[in-house]
Write a structure and sequence with these properties.
Layout: H1 4-9, E1 17-20, E2 24-28, E3 36-42, H2 58-73, E4 81-84, H3 88-91, E5 100-104
Antiparallel strand pairs: 1-2, 2-3, 3-5, 4-5
The structure holds adenosine monophosphate and zinc ion.
Adenosine monophosphate is lined by residues 4, 13, 15, 27, 29-31, 39, 86, 92-95.
Length: 113
Amino acid sequence: MDCLFCKIVNGEIPSKKVYEDDLVYSFYDIEPQAPFHILIIPKKHITSALEIDDSNKDIVGHIFKVAAEIAKEHNIAEGGYRLVTNVGKDGGQTVGHMHFHMLGGRNLQWPPG
Ligand code: AMP
Ligand code: ZN
């Protein structure tokens, strides 16, 4: 499948790895929007959060757990962070492989644009 993030998972396209296990891969966003900006993605292709159902919902909990661990390791646990997934055109999704942005290291505004 011609998917940018599948290619990142299998190493065809280089990335700066933050974390990896059997289920997920995490790497630095190429255009950081905050001092700390990484993406956490399932290794298995899921187009967006709209595809989450009973067969694959456990990955979402796993991603949140991994994010908490990364926060503690990268010293953003105390300051806090935002974990967000954009879905579809109106959600601002530009890569069709579900990914969670993890942003921290500055005071983030709400609501987002
Ligand atoms: P979204 O707009 O939610 O689909 O987010 C896609 C994100 O992927 C953006 O923040 C991009 O900066 C990021 N991105 C695109 N290509 C790469 C890449 N090759 N390596 C790392 N991050 C990327
Ligand atoms: Zn993919």
